[in-house]
Amino acid sequence: MRCPYVYILASKRNGTLYVGVTADLPRRLWEHQSGAIEGFTKKYGVHRLVYMEPFETITGAIAREKQLKEWRRAWKIELIGRDNPQWLDLSERLNN
Fold this sequence. Notes:
Number of strands: 3
CATH class: Alpha Beta
CATH superfamily: GIY-YIG endonuclease
Helix content: 40-55%
Number of domains: 1
Strand content: 15-25%
Oligomer: single chain
Number of helices: 5
Low-confidence stretches: none
Mean pLDDT: 94
Order of helices and strands: EEHHEHHH
Shape: globular
Structural class: alpha+beta
CATH architecture: 3-Layer(aba) Sandwich
C-alpha cells in the first residue's frame, strides 16, 4: 500500500525547484525522471528528489503542498538543507 507524499525535486543543488504531491511517489518520480509527462519538470530538467514528506491522508498532503508552494524560495532551500544538507538524490531510498 502506497502512502501520500509531498516532495520537492531540484535540477541541481540550489537549482530550479518543483513541489508536488502524489499517492504513489515511485510512479510519479518515474514519470518526472523519464520525461513521460510533458510539463515544467521536463522543460527545466528538474529530476532530483531532494525532499519527501509522508502523510497519512492525501488531504493532509495536499494541504502541505499548498503551504509549501506559498513559501519563499529561501524557506524551501532551508527545509531541504535541514533533512538533506548535501542535496543527495533520495530516489534510491524508494527502491530499498
